[in-house]
Amino acid sequence: RIQALPTSVIVLRRSGALSLCIMSFSVDLWDQFEEVYSKVSRGKDFTEKLSDFVRKRQVIEKEYAKKLQALTKSAEVEMGSLNEGWMQIKEETESIAKKHAEISESFGFQVADPLANHVRDHKKKRQTLRDQGRKLIKDLAAAEQRAVAAKGSYESARRAQDDAKEKYDQACANNTVSPQNEKLMKKVKEQGKKAEAADQKYRAAVDACKSVQDKHYDEEMPRVLDEFQALEQSRIECIKEALVNWVKLQESLAPEVQSACDRMNRSVEAINPVSDLQQFVREKATHQKTPARCEYESYNQEQQKCVPNPSSGSSSSASSSSSAPMPIAVAPSSGGASVPSGRSTPPAVAPRNASAAPSHNASSHSTKQDLGQSSKYPTIGQCRALFAYHPSDPLELSFNAGDVIDIIRKDPSGWWQGALNGTVGVFPSVDWVEEIPASGPIGQVRALYDYTAETEYELSIRAGEILHADREEEGWYCGTNSHSEYGRWPGNFCERV
């Protein structure tokens, strides 16, 4: 079973013994480069906004407590212990109403400047690692495509050689010598040379692909991911030090705020970079093994194609699966299993009043029984729930973390109207959901490889099958097959017709 430790590493208890399992970007997120870069990019944005927040705090330091409290309402959020420390800072700041003007300058060089300097000093490194990672992925895909193309050329050459030899053997069966026989013999030799040349190219392509794969999976991509993790840990440590300075400045205020400072200090000291990054890894890790390496396959004359070698140690299913590319997308967005929570506890719900929230008349608030077809309610987009929300008000929409909600109406108050599983209602949008980018219809596509669905939301496809794709979501196509079955499949497993 899993126990919680101060460092938030996973502890497995087996037969009374404890074993530690420290997760990392390079080991557990080896196939999630874009997710890792997105985490680093969001971290940079958060740090910039936090730095801007501190500078605004400087400006209003001498103003009334009301303005100070209004500033804390616009703060950004992070995740894990860092977010908990920051939220405690914001809450206690609201209780300190009046501030002394003499600490305004100190907030600049002790808090805001270090944050801004960290973002600026690591800008080039972030961009370099991003470019290196994307180039590694591109080079790997190109090497695998070249190996597949060389294999196809070799198979075609061998088939042509076999056809030429068969015609020559038939002509020789008549026991006659003629110019036609000599031409056929010449063609057999020419096709043999072409097949031999194609075989050499195929072998060279396989060797090159192996080299690229070894470099990608064993050297370069782990290095890039490790440097990203070190960069993120450095960023969180920088924010922690800045927030510690924040607390120390507030400790110099009047004795009546000392108790608030003590609470903030405890919260900030509890920030743990390892814990926060472990939470991110747990949410994003797919726990998949690295794909099998490319292997040379001998040509089988009876089957007229290359087949796996018995000595390779891999099954026919593993060999066939290696010819198809890995899905470029991350875990499906439907089903809630891969949707990050973004924080340890749900955010507070803003109050809903009659003037701000959408109206709830007979047409806008329906149950599963009277909703009917979803087309009855035109939608303007979709959003994904970040937390579970189960209100007691029958006018509000209940959902679980990861549910995809159809948006019917947006209200400036932050309360939106939407539909989920046959129910229409209102729900809080700020910090509770994230909008899913819309994409236009794709049309007909042809499957290039077989793909077996792994969840109820996916669609199994077969090579050569024609499908209709409605839209694309994070590298996955959503649509129907010829049997009108709906689901999603990897976009790089097909081509547009």
Summary tags:
alpha+beta; 14% strand; elongated; disordered N terminus; 5-stranded antiparallel β-sheet; 497 residues
Uncertain regions spanning at least 5 consecutive residues: 1-12, 313-322, 328-343, 354-376
Task: Provide the helix percentage.
Answer: 40-55%
Strand order of the largest sheet: 9-8-7-6-10
Tally of helical segments? 11
Our measurement of the CA-to-CA distance between the termini, rounded to an integer number of angstroms, reads 50 Å
Beta content comes to: 5-15%
Overall morphology: elongated
What is the average of the pLDDT values? 79
- Return the string of H and E elements: EEEHHHHHHHHHEEHHEEEEEEEEEE
Largest sheet: 5 strands, antiparallel
Rg computed from alpha carbons, rounded to a whole number of angstroms = 31 Å
Number of strand segments: 15
Structural class, please? alpha+beta
Short structural description:
It is elongated and about 115 Å long.
Account of the 3D structure:
By secondary structure, this protein is an alpha+beta fold. Helices cover 47% and strands 14% of the residues. It is built from 11 helices and 15 strands. α3 (65-72) runs antiparallel to α4 (80-95). The chain is elongated and about 115 Å long. Residues 1-12, 313-322, 328-343 and 354-376 have low confidence and may be disordered.
